[in-house]
């Protein structure tokens, strides 16, 4: 059966949105004449606008930092604003890529007759998805979530529902028009351009970043770019000031998501804790070293043959601690030597 209008729902982090675009690509390959509308977070609008696998989009409110009451109030306001859009949107099918019992009920109330989603929750081994009792189609997924990559989760949901064998990679908005701006931010190149992003679900201390840059710059001719949002600009200034003999640009707070993608496209390597920037770099086609502590490579490593995922596999990993009680052993036990040796191997490999 084909569908003329399909609604896809995904509203988690940046990496999840990027991985989900591969599932959107499968939908468009299977039903090229269908209209695909995506419900997403507003912060990813730039990656949805002019994206070749997304026809329309609108926004959902979701925050893991709000109190229960504040969260429910904002979701109620969202409901008042968008419910009629769901009712009269003409959607023939809705595919859930993220977990949400509340949204599943809203979609059902809106009268969308075909609702598809996964049988197990993401991130919790063998945990049944409570929304599946409302699904008209349930995708059967690997219950061992610790050894099942999230991009495969999204693609398997789409393939099973569509009865499709199509394969796809993440698809993002083209940023070639921003290449000159990116080159101006990077500045004059002396050897390889290496980007460092150290803020994610876990944060590498400034001293460790300084160690990595010092060690790598002494072994490979490189210029460096520090990446991050404006909240860490002062920290990154301290790093730059302590590395007087290294060519280093502080780009924290100076890029939106599309300019960041363009900067990555003009770079040779990204070194980063596991965060959305890792997956943006993978989609941009550059080489990546991802440092895993709170997450494991099997479920969240970059989707590219140009990546190396480093992990010390501590007993406490993966974890959900906001503050690490173990002194960030998971990241500190990935040695500077291992990071530098991996960087040298990747940088000296010929790009295809």
The class by helix and strand makeup works out as alpha/beta
Residues in helix, %: 25-40%
Rg over CA atoms, rounded to whole Å, is 21 Å
Total strand count, please? Answer: 12
Would you identify the CATH H-level superfamily of the largest domain?
Glycogen Phosphorylase B
Largest β sheet strand count, sense and barrel closure: 6 strands, parallel
The DSSP helix count reads 13
Helix and strand element order: EHEHEHEHEEHHEHEHEHEHEHEHH
Question: What does this protein look like?
Answer:
With 352 residues, the protein is an alpha/beta fold. The chain folds into two domains: 158 residues, 3-Layer(aba) Sandwich (Rossmann fold), CATH 3.40.50; 173 residues, Glycogen Phosphorylase B (Rossmann fold). The protein is built from 13 helices and twelve strands. The strands form two sheets. The chain has a six-stranded parallel β-sheet, sandwiched between helices. The chain is globular and about 65 Å long.
Features:
16% strand; Rossmann fold; six-stranded parallel sheet; 13 helices; globular
Summarize the structure.
The chain is 38% helix and 16% strand. It has helices at 14-30, 45-48, 68-87, 101-109, 150-162, 179-186, 206-219, 233-241, 257-265, 276-284, 297-300, 329-332, 336-348, and strands at 5-9, 35-40, 56-59, 93-96, 114-118, 137-139, 192-197, 222-227, 248-250, 269-273, 287-292, 307-311. It has a six-stranded parallel sheet with strand order 3-2-1-4-5-6, with helices on both faces. A six-stranded parallel sheet has the order 9-8-7-10-11-12, sandwiched between helices.
